[in-house]
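Job type: complex structure
Entries:
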Amino acid sequence: MNATPELDREQGSAFQPKFDAAGLLSAVVVDAESKAVLMLAFMDREALDATIATGEAHFHSRSRGRLWKKGETSGHVLTVKRILVDCDQDALVLECAAAGPTCHTGAVSCFYRTLRDGSLQNVKT
Amino acid sequence: MNATPELDREQGSAFQPKFDAAGLLSAVVVDAESKAVLMLAFMDREALDATIATGEAHFHSRSRGRLWKKGETSGHVLTVKRILVDCDQDALVLECAAAGPTCHTGAVSCFYRTLRDGSLQNVKT
């Protein structure tokens, strides 16, 4: 019990998610099988709680200013298989099974382009 | 040339990084070989430019309020092999070769714990 709060956050077993000044933390979604990064979004406490309670990924839409269940319109929900937490507990990795393309463009992953010599090229994902 | 700015950003070949209200975008570092997520950090324009110019990952430290070259103290620099850009160009994936453990705790990855039943457990990375 002599650990500093910082050490306890890094080394302890207590889940103490750290939200930033806007009340958000970062969530990286990876495919549970391939480990490919599918998307990156943000969670507030409400989205984190909803994700844990339902086992399906929820985020906070910064543009719409509200809770957003991934797939609520498309049906392409993300079933969370495992959640990884980083050292200072302000970022999560969600290992998920995706019910369809994750990107709203129809791409499997939102990261469908690579930066090369200053311009973007499509990649196979 | 009839595309909306939004469509052009999603489908075009022009690199138009989108920084948020704080002047930042998100960068997910993955191991170029294993594809494991190593860390997540933020870049402002200065950090992005430095990363592209040097081929080594630079970030903006929110806590220190300055440019931060990963490994500047530890020597554990991240050599960038490929940069992926997401649909709306506000997030990057950096596929990197790491010169040592990426986490300041000495762990290979910052994501060394998993959340299970409300508490954290160490995972093999």
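Summary: Chain A has a mean pLDDT of 95. The helical segments of chain A are 5-11, 45-54.
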